[in-house]
Each structure stands twice: as C-alpha cells, then as structure tokens.
Structures
1.
Amino acid sequence: MTHAPVFSTADLVDEHEAVIASCDLQLRQFGGLPSFAGVVRTVRCREDNALVKRILAEPGAGCVLVVDGDGSLHSALMGDLIAASAVANGWAGVVINGVVRDVATLRTLPLGIKALGSNPRKSAKAGRGEVDGVVSFGGVDFTPGQRLWSDDDGIVVLSAD
C-alpha cells in the first residue's frame, strides 16, 4: 500500500520562503492521497487528454504530472481509467488546471489528484498539446525537474537547482 509522504507545505514555505513558489489557484482534492510530492513532469493541452493518457501510461517513478488544461471546465482531462493507469505505473500525483470525472472512484485510488472541479463530459483524443514544456498557472511556472509538494494547504514548488 502507498502511503502519503510526511510534510507540511506551510512549513516548507516558512523554511524556504525566498526560493519556493506557492500556487495561488484554489484546486480541489480528488485523489485518495491528500498529500503527495515528486519531481514535476508537464503536459499542456486543452479539452484533449490523449497526451495525459500517454504520459501516465509510462513509468512514473514517483513523479507528479502537472497538466495545464487552460482552466477549461468543459471536458475532463482525467477519469478513473487514466488515474488507475497512473497508480499502476508509479506516479505520485496529478495536478490539473482543468477538470476530472469519475470522482467517486478517484477518491479510492492511492494517488494524489488536484483539479479545478469535475465534469462528466469526456475530452477529445487528437493528441494536441505539448509534453515537458514550462506550464504556468496560479502564479507559478511549473518546470520539468522541479520538486512539487501538495497537501490540504496548497501546492508549492522548488526549482531543481
């Protein structure tokens, strides 16, 4: 069984205030792990989850996928099947500037999941977007290789250097 890491984002901010970034976007918890941390990978896509599905089907090695869905509430970028794939492949969590679906099932998975909300509508599958570029939302530039921590207080990131 996967256990949540022990940390506090508030303590991390207090300790590293000059060099840590805190995401201002008020994301909701959807996964079974309310606290999660890992190295950042990114996807930029809008209303098309083909890249999210592809990346989460790869070995995650405890990483966190940060998905910039451009804040769209129109269609879900992740549901129960993609989230289960993330668990099976060793991802620590997923942060989505967009929405999810299959919320009741997501709550049961040992995966950290934060998103703007939920919508039962499925997304397009064309594969449009970008993988492992810098994505920005909530006043934070999420860069692959950064370290991310997420808990009930929010999301913080520290650069890889």
2.
Amino acid sequence: MKYDIWDSPWGEILAAVTDKGLALLAFQQGAQPVTPEPHWQRDASALAQVRLQCRQYAAGERQAFELPLDMPGTEFQRQVWQALTTIPSGETRSYGEIARQIGRPKAVRAVGAANGRNPVALVVPCHRVIGASGNLTGYAGGLAIKQALLSHEQRAD
C-alpha cells in the first residue's frame, strides 16, 4: 500500500492506494484518524491523481471523482457505496432513500452502518447522506466537516 498526506480546506487528508486503486481516503482530524501501517510506503507520485482530483474538488472545478477504487466490502456494502455515487453534488439523500434505492427499504440501519464503513470519504460521497428529519448525522470526519463539504458543494454548483 502506498500513501500520502496533504492539507485541504477541511484539514489534513490521508489517502492510500493499492495496485488496483484508491483504498482509503480519510480526514485526519475527525473521529477516526488513520495511522499508516508499518509496511505502507509514503509515495506522493502514486497519489498524484487522487491529490489532483481532491484539489479540483476543493476549487469547485470537480463535482465527481474519476478514480479506480479498491474497496473491499460485503455485497451489501458495495451496493450502498455504489448508490452513494449517484447522489449529485450539492444534494442529499436520507438513509431510508438509499435503502429504497438498493431495493432494501427496511435496511435503513444497515445502510447507515455501511455508510459509516465507507473507506474513501469524499470520493464516495457519504457526507451527502442525512437523517430522515433532514438533520446531519454521524460522519467519520466529524459533523463540522460534513457541514462544510455540503456547504462547499452548494456554493460550487
């Protein structure tokens, strides 16, 4: 695994790739900062495209990411993560709406759990999922970052 760390308008980001694609993208000041494993290698060049697309997103020049992904997960998690990629920039969906979209309308809590296990925050836009009441709910990067990302997207669109 190769990784790099850089600053963004929302704080420090750590991203890691395998030979297959992006495996991790995490905000470091959130509830779940990531510590690189001893066998990981820091390699900025291996993450150049990820960093570029993150900078384009931050500048309002990109609404969706075009990166190969390497996200191991259950079939259900992959369905949820795929559904997240269909939420347009600047819009939100509830956990219930995602559950209905994947044909599992009673799996709202499981959708929430899968959303929380998304390993590539920002790229697979889990920040666009909100509670049924319209309130912001948990986010690994913290609710302040979730709100900032949503506000950024609404200004950029």
